[in-house]
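Posting for a labmate who doesn't have an account.
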Amino acid sequence: MTAIAIVMPQLGESVSEGTIGRWLVKPGDRLVEFAPMLEVDTDKVSAEVPAPFSGVLTTIIAREGDTVAVGAEIALAESDETEQVMPLSAATRPPEPDTASAEPEGHSSPAVSMLARAHSIDLTKVAGTGTGGRVTRKDIQSIIDGRPAPAPAALTPGDLTGTNHSVPLTRVRQLIAENMTLSKATIPHAWQTQEVDMSGVVANRRANIERFKEAEGFSLTPLPYVIKATASALREHPEVNASFNQTEIIVHDNINIGVSVGLEDTLVVPVVRDADQLTVAGIARVVADLAKRARDRTLKADDLRGGTFTVNNSGTFGTLLSYAVIVPGQAGILTMEAIVERPVATNGMVDVKPMMYLCFSLDHRVLDGLAAARFLTSCRKLLEAVTADTSIR
C-alpha cells in the first residue's frame, strides 16, 4: 500500500491553523473512517478530528503541542482503499511556494501576520521553521516569550504581601487571549448604550413561563427575547450584519447570532443559525441545547462557526454596563445587562419599571455612529413593543 498524507482540516471559516492537543492513535494503530483520530485546539474550539479514511497510521509528522497551518501534513497513513485516495508522492503534492519571489508577510497565515503586527514584530526578519520557510505561530510566540517582561512601574517587593502561586495557561485560554488581543489591536472599537423599558418582556415572560417550562422542560429567560429583537434589527439594518476584510465590506445574507456561554475555565460562542427565522420559543430551544452541550463539552466545530454577530448576556451576573470585545470577523457585539427595577419619569409622572441597558460595541471601520444608533434604537423599540399577549411561538 502507498503512504497517504493526512492534513490539518479547516475547523472554522476564519481558522487558519490549529494546535495538536492529543493524538488518540499511534503509529501502527488502525484508523477507522470517521472515528476520532486526534484532538486539535484553535482559538474557537477544541475538537476531535476524525480519520478521513480507514487504514493504518504509519507516521506522525505533527507532534502534540505543534501549531500547524490548515492544509499542512500532520501524518502519513496507508489506506485500505488506495484507489479512492491520492497517494503521497512528489507528483501529487502541492508545489512549494516560490520563496524567492513572494513577499515574506505573504508567506504566513493571516492569524500569524496579525499576531506579529500586534507585538510589533517584523516578519521579514523572522526565520520561519514551517514548510518552505513559512513563518508559524510558534515562531512568533517564541520571539514574544523571549522578550523580557516590563517591570511594574511603582511595584517593589515590599508591596507584595502574603503568598502567591502561578496558574499555567491552558492552550485554549492562550488562544482566547491571543484572539482578544488581536481584536483590540486591529479593530477600532466604539461603544454606545441605550436604556430599555422591559415591562412588556417581563409581563410576557410571566404570562408564559409556567406553560413553557411544563412543555419544554426548562425555564424561559429574557435572553431569547433579546436575540429575537437583535435578529429583527439586523434584518432592518443589514449593514450591521457585516465583516471588514481590508478591501471591502461583506454584508451577510444569513443572520447567525453567536451567544456567549461562560464555563468554569473558558468561554465559547456557539451559533444560533438563521435567528431571524425563529420565534422566541424556537430561539430558546436552540440556546438551551447549545448551552447544555457547551457545559457537557460535546459541542461540534460546526456549532461554533459561521457567526455574523454576537449577543452577550453578562447581565445574568448583575452587571449594569459592559464594554465587550468584538469577535474578529464581525462588526459588533451586543450585551444585555441586568434588568433592574428603578424609578422612571414619564409624562411628568414617576413610576417604577424594570429597566435594562443594551450596550453595543461596534467596529468603526464598518459602522459610523449614526448607523450604530439606528440599529440600537431598533433593538430597543422591538423589545419595548412586546406586550403580555405577544405570541412567543
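Reply:
Got it, the C-alpha cells are right above this. The chain has three domains: 3-84, 98-142+170-186, 188-384.
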